[in-house]
Specification:
It is a single chain. The chain is mainly alpha-helical. It folds into two domains: 53 residues, no CATH class; 54 residues, no CATH class. Helix content is 51%, strand content 5%. It has five helices and two strands; from the N terminus they run ααββααα. A two-stranded antiparallel sheet has the order 1-2. It is globular.
């Protein structure tokens, strides 16, 4: 789950906490797997900074819907993309685990295509 959460966070361009907490107060290692997740809030910690283990992409539609919206935006901006994933995502709703799996697969393929 941690690997998939990190993959999604990077796809969403969420900033790593270690990138903006570099004023010497904290060790970079302490925050290397923390991301600032726009639109999410952890009341227990009074923060929008989440460790990859604490992200809820596979558990909450509140976390997953912004990812789906970004994927849809990618299809609009890149009409040459294969519509396979967006169609499969639509058909998988309301099964959040299946949608999460398809999103991770889309991001992997999307990243592979960017590297070519």
């Amino acid at each position: 789950m941690e690997k998939n959460n990190k993959l999604i966070a990077e796809f969403m361009n969420y900033p790593k906490c270690s990138d903006y907490w570099n004023d010497g107060r904290f060790l970079e290692e302490d925050y290397k797997d923390y991301y600032y997740v726009r639109g999410q809030y952890d009341a227990c910690y009074n923060s929008s900074n989440f460790h990859v283990n604490d992200m809820k992409f596979g558990l909450s539609w509140d976390w997953l819907i912004p990812v789906i919206e970004k994927i849809q935006d990618n299809y609009i901006e890149n009409p040459e993309l294969d519509y396979k994933y967006i169609d499969e995502i639509r058909l998988a709703v309301p099964n959040i685990q299946e949608v999460h799996y398809l999103i991770v697969e889309f991001i992997k393929d999307y990243n592979d295509g960017k590297d070519k």
